[in-house]
Amino acid sequence: MSAKLEVKDVTFSYDGETTVLRDVNLTLNDGELVCLLGVSGGGKTTLFNVIAGLNRPQQGKVLLNGEDITGQTGKVSYMLQKDMLLPYRRVVDNVALPLIIKGVRKKEARRIAGEQFERFGLEGTQMRYPAELSGGMRQRAALLRTYLFSADVALLDEPFSALDTITKSGMHQWYLDVMEKIRLSTIFITHDIDEAILLSDRIYLLNGKPGTLTDEIIIREPKPRRADFNLTGEFLQYKREIISKLQT
Question: What integer is the mean pLDDT of 89-108?
Answer without folding.
Answer: 90
